[in-house]
Amino acid sequence: MSIALRRPFPPMEALSVDEIPVGKTWQYEPKWDGFRCLAFRDGDKIDLQSKSGQSLTRYYPELVDALRALKAKRFVLDGEIVVPRGRVFSFDDLLQRIHPAASRVNKLAVETPALFIVFDLLADADGNVLIKEPLNVRRKRLEAFAKKYLRGHKSIRLSPATAKLADARKWLKQVGSTLDGIIAKRSDMPYQSGNRNGMQKIKNFRSADCVVGGFRYNEGLPVVGSLLLGLYDEKGLLNHVGFTSSLKADEKKALTKKLEKLVAPPGFTGDRPGGPSRWSTKRSAEWQPLKPELVVEVCYDHFSGGRFRHGTRLLRWRPDKAPRQCTMDQVRQKKADLMKLLK
Q: Which residues are catalytic?
């Protein structure tokens, strides 16, 4: 018997909201910081599909082996691929796995093995497709599947879920420095393939005061396009940690004049924009260094590998803040033990 569900299959998506939805029809889960993945097994054939519908199979051979080792010979699981580093998960290590060389992938599979955290069951071990069933039914079937087939398999874990708002708020508060936030799902709805009707994400946004160590011009225009942000480390070096481009158009001309008066090397005395990294591009080297005199407060969602993961949002200028007060300590959050949530 084969599974009727075939890839590429659009996974459920989430709508970003500011507040946790409340009500008896909501189920809450941690929002894991990894790659969304649908895992298909039909006999000996295993496929890992990304959120965009692309194959991830060749990049995670250790997960393919782990899925093949399950006694269940057919299923479709929805989950997240993560790479543990100590008590937390490393998105940087996860990205390193997307490499064209099979030898490199196999080496990293041994050195930094991935986990597959499962949070939904789309087809069961008998090949029955469950996407028309409501989440509360699918969750019970998933827990039964996990009890029967996942026990003792360290590379495949069941994600916790709760209907208690207090638990969701606890996750958001206590584990927010290492999780992306939490997910809320309608427990009374079938699987919403390719849309955001039944799932919401609530992310943790934090703020930090940063030195403006440089700027880039708007491409093709003589006005500022983005501010380059820096934080001081224990050695007193100003390290480039990211950027913000959320500048008001009607303020750019005046801001450009202000910044141009402060242009002076070196700008950053530690890590610099355009240095050797996987983020480097030709344009990343085209920046203007500034005297470390200006401070801004920015909103960010995640900090790892010495950088803000995504672009930040400018909240306000901080003329009351001394640049030397802008240190890395602001972004060094207490790390919760994520592995405990998976036991």
A: 31
